[in-house]
Structure formats: C-alpha cells, structure tokens
Please model this.
Amino acid sequence: MRRAPKRQSKIGLLLIVIAMLVTVIANGIRVANLKAKSERLAVTERQLETEIEDAHKKADDLAEKEKYMQTKKYIEDEAKDKLGLVYPDEIVIEPREK
Model:
C-alpha cells in the first residue's frame, strides 16, 4: 500500500515539471514576439521622426518663402519674369537663340 502514494507523487512531480516547461516555452515565445514587435516599432519610430524633421524643414522653407513674397524684391522679380517689365533705365540683354 505504500507504493501507490510514491507512484502518485512521481506522476504529480512529472506533471508539475511538464507544466513548468510549457510555461517557460510559452514565455520564451512571448518574449521573442515582443522583441520582434519592439524592433518593428523602433523602425517605425525612426521613420516618423524623419518625416517630422522633413515637415519642420518644409514649414521653415514655406515661412521663409512667405516672408520673401511680402517684399518689394519679390514683386519686382515676378514683374520681370512673368510680365517682362523693366525699369526705364534698365537695359535687357537676352542670349541669342540658335
């Protein structure tokens, strides 16, 4: 009669070991998945930071262009380029076309 409790304790111990192994393996898989997700998120973060920097540069360029467009120089340049206007004392020299 004493043998039955020993056998049950071995089976119980075996079940505990198996449960622990399953838990360790499941946690290992979770860690690997989380690490891969973390790496993907880090790449996405770097891409978004680059996009933010580009947007800031574009905003600065647009602000600079807006400031330039409010100057007399801009109005003169546009009148010369688009309308062909010149000051009365200016001489326009254009290259010959071949």
